[in-house]
Amino acid sequence: MITLKGIEKYYRNGLNKSWVLKNINLEINQGEFVTIMGPSGAGKSTLLNIIGMLEEPSGGEYSFFDEPVHKFKERQRNELHKQYMGFVFQAYHLIDELTVYENIETPLLYRKVKKNERQSMVADILDRFNIVAKKDLFPHQLSGGQQQLVGVARAIISKPKLLLADEPTGNLHSSQGEMIMDLFKKLHEQGVTIIQVTHSDKNAQYGSRIINLLDGWVDSDEKVN
After folding, report:
1. Running DSSP on this structure, what letter comes out for residue 187?
2. How far is CA 118 from the centre of its chain?
3. Which DSSP string do the residues of 25-73 spell out, in sequence order?
4. Contact (Cβ atoms closer than 8 angstroms) between residue 59 and residue 7
5. I want to staple 146 with a disulfide (CB 3.0 to 4.6 A). Which of 142, 168, 181, 223 is the partner?
6. What are phi and psi of 60, to 5 degrees?
7. CB burial class (10 A; 0-12, 13-18, 19+) of residue 225?
8. Which long-range contacts (CB under 8 A, 24 or more apart) does 121-128 make?
9. pTM more than 0.85
């Protein structure tokens, strides 16, 4: 599904380069549940953003379902992202001007889902996340944990083939965090490929593989028993 060859990311500072990722070589198969771990500044979120086509690498090759993403223009990458991916952001990235309902509905509008079907899908997910009472509120009226729940709901509503999650339980109470991880486990069992960034050893155990980054390199890549 995903092949990364020699992926690099750096920022220029005059004549110097500040390296974030160096020579990342990875294969991620469809149906895997992969966890990316490592200390702060190791490049975890940058790697996730590159896989999610939200950032371009400075060098290397990226293939997604055998499509050469590294050769694509931004519009083509955006189309692939919308078609195949759901993304849970650490900083929520909800749209301030839209209600909870409208934020969750947004990916379905991108995919041109019919109105009746959209209404049904949003109603189901509001119920599943126990946030029906919040549907007409705006993001600033929600707690951090509630915003994160809305972000997860938005990411999974369009049934993506690839779910990318950056610290998905970082702002949630332990019971809410377990609910989200159990949901991820179910999605994985249904065939969704999941890549999560987390500091939580407990969350990592939900997955099938752990990739450890250190200073922008892949330090280890191991199966979970």
Report:
1. H
2. 22
3. EEEE-TT-EEEEE-STTSSHHHHHHHHTTSS--SEEEEEETTEEGGG--
4. yes
5. 142
6. 100, 180
7. exposed
8. 121/157, 122/157, 125/153, 125/156, 125/157, 126/100, 126/101, 126/153, 128/153
9. yes
Q: Quick check: 146 and 95 in contact, CB under 8 A?
A: no
Write out pLDDT tens, residues 10-64: 999 888 999 999 999 999 999 999 999 999 999 999 999 999 999 999 999 999 9
Residue with tokens 């126990």: 130
For the chain, give the number of residues: 225
What structural domains and CATH numbers belong to the chain?
A: 31-56+74-223 (3.40.50.300)
Strand-pairing partners, residue 34, are 195, 209
Using left for φ > 0, alpha for ψ between -120 and 50, and beta otherwise, residue 130 falls in left
> Considering only CA atoms, which of 200, 207, 202, 203 is closest in space to residue 224?
207
Euclidean distance between CA atoms 149 and 160, whole angstroms: 17
- How big is the CA angle at 68 (ends 86 and 25), to the nearest 5 degrees? 80
